[in-house]
Specification:
By secondary structure, this protein is α/β, with parallel strands linked by helices. It contains two helices and three strands.
């Protein structure tokens, strides 16, 4: 399963990624390529600065 991590706190994103990698998931942190790949799951911080909340993603 390929998971995209969208989190503005780098240490938290790294910790989440390490945990998920340990569970045999392929993880990437957002870096301008959010629509370049198909992801099975997006781990989204709903409190991102700039208002990228659930309304932005049409949740």
């Amino acid at each position: 399963m390929k998971i995209l991590i969208v989190e503005d706190e780098k240490e938290l994103a790294a910790d989440i990624g390490k945990y998920l990698l340990g569970e045999n998931y392929l993880c990437e942190q957002v870096a301008g390529k959010i629509f370049a790949y198909d992801y099975d799951c997006i781990f989204l911080d709903l409190m991102l600065p700039g208002g990228a909340d659930c309304n932005y993603w049409n949740c």
